[in-house]
Amino acid sequence: MLAKQAWRIHHNPDSLLAFILKAKYFKNNDFLNASLGHSPSYSRRSLLWGRDLLSKGLVWKIGDGKTIPTLSPNWLHDHINISYKDDSLPPEITLSYFIKEDGHWDINKLNSHFDKDTIYSILSVPTNPYSKTVSFGAMFFLWKTVWSSNIPPKIKHFIWKAFNHLLPSNLNLYTRKVLPSPYCSICLSKVESNSHSLLECSRVDKNHIFKDIEPFIISYLQEYSEAQNKVLPRPETATEGSSSTALIIDSILPFPRNYKLSVDAAVQRQHNIHGYGAIVQDHVGRVIAGFYSSAISGLPPIFVEAKALLRALN
After folding, report:
1. Residue 245: is its pLDDT beyond 60?
2. What pLDDT does 310 receive?
3. Computed over its alpha carbons, how large is the radius of gyration of the chain?
4. Can you give the pTM of this predicted structure?
5. Which of 68, 96, 155, 284 matches a 20 to 30 Å C-alpha distance to 127?
6. Given its phi and psi angles, is residue 63 left (phi above 0), alpha (psi -120 to 50 degrees) or beta?
7. 114-147 as b/e, with b when 16 or more CB fall inside 10 Å?
8. Residue 94: DSSP 8-state
9. CA separation (Å) from 51 to 7, 47, 56, 141?
10. pLDDT at 82 (0 to 100)
11. What confidence tens digit (pLDDT) does each residue in 31-48 have?
């Protein structure tokens, strides 16, 4: 309960409670860095105990990197203590120094200040320089698309839980004292977070798994679509033999005065390179806009796809 209260204060710094506590206990600092002070009250000691417990599980989301100290321990998941090589201090103390204007990591600056293992870990961390300016609009569009899509509700809920790291991973169950260990039961070498179990586990052959489940997914969505068509009336504009399943939506052109956005991405792991592009078509299939780009990174394919979609929407 104390950790939850600490999270509310940290997450809602404009709340009345946060204002009162800041005015009384940490006027010249923030809640996460507030000191215990002289002769602290029982409530202050309890609140800071909850704060310290909360801090053990906090992880930075990079964004543009302007507010994150480079040597902070809570942004690189497999490095507790981060250090520069040869004591080569960069001119800035925040991560924004290592992020280029296009939002990608600057490999030249990384090579100048970190060893190869640290660089490899950094390249696997996604960035989002637009997080402060368009994150709300982008997230609203994302979830509006998810919740209004013609897919089974339990898949929508799974997507929501996976995005918010609420699936019953070993880490989540360990945090709730259900399991004795947070480590992955398959590879046994990493903490099993939602990201690890879905994307990163070394024992998971993703190509093999996707190949096995693809027929099931196609069959499942076809059955769901057929069941919906039996319950819901067909639109007046539909013709005999037409279909509205999600499986062929990619081949359907938009209605007049609307546009279709198509995005794709690719990863070359051997050289830590990814590329992505997008085109916009009108209702007759004519390409009216497009772009393509490439960068050096170690991001998993799903993050490259997300980066491509975010840039296309921007």
Report:
1. no
2. 86
3. 24
4. 0.41
5. 155
6. left
7. beeebbebbbbbbbbbbbeeeeeebeeebeeeee
8. B
9. 8, 6, 9, 33
10. 82
11. 666 777 777 777 777 777
More confident call, 204 vs 85: 85
Q: How far apart are CA 139 and CA 187, in angstroms?
A: 33
Q: Which residue has the tokens 């609203």?
A: 140
φ/ψ (deg, to 5) at 242:
-75, 160
Find, among 34, 49, 55, the residue nearest to 2 by Cα. Answer: 49
| Distance from C-alpha of 262 to C-alpha of 236, rounded to nearest angstrom | 27
Judged against a pLDDT cut of 50, whether residue 132 lies above it is answered with: no
Q: Mean pLDDT across the chain, nearest whole number? A: 75
What are the residues whose beta carbons fall under 8 Å from the beta carbon of 246, sequence distance 6 or more? 149, 150, 151, 221, 225
Q: Which of 19-28, 87-96, 190-199 has the lowest mean pLDDT?
A: 19-28
How many of the other CB atoms lie within 10 Å of CB of 50?
17
Question: What is the reported pLDDT for 97?
Answer: 92
Residues 6+ apart with CB under 8 A from 156: 146, 147, 149
For residue 254, pLDDT over 80 is answered with no
- Other CB atoms within 10 A of residue 86 CB: 8
Task: Take residue 133 and report the two structure tokens written for it.
Answer: 């300016």
Q: Which residue intervals of the chain are DSSP H helices? A: 2-11, 16-25, 42-55, 107-113, 116-123, 131-148, 153-163, 170-175, 194-195, 206-231, 301-313
100-119: pLDDT as tens digits: 877 778 888 988 998 888 88
Class of residue 12 by CB neighbours under 10 A (exposed 0-12, middle 13-18, buried 19+): exposed
CB atoms within 10 A of CB 38: 5
Residue 73 bridge partners (DSSP): none
**Residue whose token pair is 């196609």:** 218
C-alpha span between 170 and 182 (Å, rounded): 5
pLDDT in tens, 217-240: 888 888 888 777 765 444 443 333
